[in-house]
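Good morning C.,

I know you're traveling, so I'll keep this short. The sequence:
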Amino acid sequence: MTEDTEALGLNLIAVFEQAAEAARRAEDAYRREAAMRIEVLARERANAFRRLNLMRSATKAIAEAEDPDKATARARFIVASALGWDEIGPRQALVLDRLMPVFEAIQAEMGASEGPPGPGSQAALLAFEDWYQGETGTEFYALFERYMPETPRVDF
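The tokens, ready to paste straight into the viewer:
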């Protein structure tokens, strides 16, 4: 083999090395994008189910209230309990106060005798979520994430 053919061979290998590196970079970029997209979808799913559970709890509390005048207060109590708020400080009270229009809209929609529920409770909930995000910089449904430390197992 001459030096010229050896140099051509090395150049040929370099072209394939560059192509392999470009393919690796493209795959790595795609994997990062896919991981970020999966994370976004997982957060959206978790929030959708938390939203569902919030609305289900509030609706059930309002429906089961013996006194219609106290139905929204019952929903407020149930939601506070779901959040683990045994004691209501000023910050918790503000959040619960801002949720009251949601409970009132649910009660109004449940009281409507005809047709499907209107967009009132959905609009009220979205307005609350926007307020909470603007007020705290976090999503409201993050409050439902509670870290549960592992408890050591002790055998007696």
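Safe travels,
E.
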